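Standup notes
- DV: blocked on the single-chain target, sequence here:
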Amino acid sequence: MPKEFSFQTMPRSYTAPGSALLAALAAVAACVLGIALASCGDSSKKPGCKADKDCKTGQVCAAGKCVECTDDAQCPAGKRCSANACIAAPECLNDKQCPTGQVCQAGKCKACAADSECGPGATCQAGACQPAKPCTKDDQCADDEDCVAGFCRKAGGTSAGGAGCTLATVYFAFDDASIQPSERDRLAANVACVEKTKGKNALLIGHTDTSGTEEYNIALSERRAQSVADYMARLGTDPARMQVVPKGETEPTGLGDDKDRRVEFQWH
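- DV (later): unblocked, structure below
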């Protein structure tokens, strides 16, 4: 006898017409909403900006980027704007902005340590620069002075090596080899001095304070001396007449770290 075949009907779920379409639309809407929410929020947390209002408090918008400042007026007192950041403003830019007798070195007013820091004809006496008496002939100077380059100077003490002018020492900020604005006038005078002193070349001797390792300070003193050489070359000094000599921390002045961060000049 042939076997009987029995058929079972599987249960089927019923879906209302259009419900699948509604579910798909709901999923799309949720996705769009998520994208919109992600694109909203606090725009000040983003690096890009279109206006100052897009930046955090205390920042401004510059070239599509939130920065601390674009000019000095946006910085607190005692600071200036440099590369869109507020940094400490220098105390001085030249000797004229310092109290009488002091010199501006690396942006700070300091007592002088040598005649070469005081400008043409002036001398350093007890840490204060004393201006030289102008003259046109020896008779206008004291008995022990000669009229040299328009100023009364001690006989035989015009400059090292018999040159008709003195090369001024320049100073640097902590761990820095860049030329400070306060040193530019001195370097311009040094360029003129080298130019008129024919037959002599100059050693540019770099120094540091004792912070850091000996190896680091040798490299820093070389960068400082090279920075001076490059600056003077841009002003017209023949690079062949300058030789960089790095000394690192080996020759402190004994007058403090500020005086140790320097480049000295020596005729040869």
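- Follow-up: The chain has two domains: 46-88, 95-267.
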